[in-house]
Design a protein that fits this description.
Blueprint: H1 2-18, H2 22-67, H3 70-91, E1 96-97, E2 100-101, H4 108-114, H5 119-132, H6 138-166, H7 173-189, H8 192-195
Helix pairs in contact: 1-6, 2-3, 2-4, 2-5, 2-6, 2-7, 3-7, 5-6
């Protein structure tokens, strides 16, 4: 029974993890501004933060939204505001100085906490535990979350590597500024589904 859901779950996890979204756009921007090594805590925070969130949602957090549906609206407003703030930070990231970008990438805890205000992460977690958990036990929810995390980390790392490789082109402060503003704009555009 568990093996029946493994391939569909891995496929769903890969498609949703590799496609553009707030996490991946921020990781690409971080890779471009700070490099791969300095972005590792951010990547781990995304992957492990999502695993934790999906597990908790699977064992009952989604029932809270059924009891208090207005809480979802409050979270959506908070999420949008937080993403707009992050877009502002990306757009105004400083140009590299002496081979290293000024400022700091997100920490592990900041990236893990971000999952709770990321609309794409919420929909991924709800869908995965609803459709792919073999049963309603905590072990089944951990299975779904762990599989998702195993697929998610290499996927998000790809976006950081893409950003790092783009850094070679972004040595000019004007090009970096344009890149950062473009990433911020795409991040804001990614809010479109949440606003519907």
């Amino acid at each position: 029974m568990w093996t029946d859901t493994l391939l569909p779950l891995v496929t769903f996890a890969f498609v949703t993890s590799i496609t553009p979204g707030p996490n991946n756009l921020m990781l690409m921007a971080s890779g471009a501004n700070f490099g791969f090594q300095r972005t590792i805590p951010h990547m781990l925070g995304v992957a492990l933060g999502f695993v934790f969130m999906a597990f908790l949602m699977g064992i009952g957090l989604s029932q809270i939204f059924e009891t208090w549906p207005r809480l979802r609206d409050v979270l959506t407003i908070f999420s949008v505001a937080y993403l707009l703030w992050l877009a502002w930070k990306i757009a105004h990231a400083a140009a590299p100085k002496e081979g290293m970008a000024a400022g700091k990438p997100l920490t592990f805890l900041q990236a893990a906490a971000f999952q709770w205000v990321n609309p794409k992460a919420w929909s991924m977690a709800l869908t995965s535990v609803t459709l792919y958990a073999p049963d309603d036990t905590p072990l089944a929810m951990f299975f779904v979350a762990a599989v998702f995390g195993a697929v998610n980390l290499p996927s998000v790392s790809t976006w950081c590597i893409l950003g790092r490789e783009m850094r070679r082109v972004l040595t000019n402060p004007n090009r970096l500024r344009l890149f950062n503003w473009a990433m911020a704009g795409i991040l804001v555009a990614s809010l479109y589904p949440a606003l519907l």
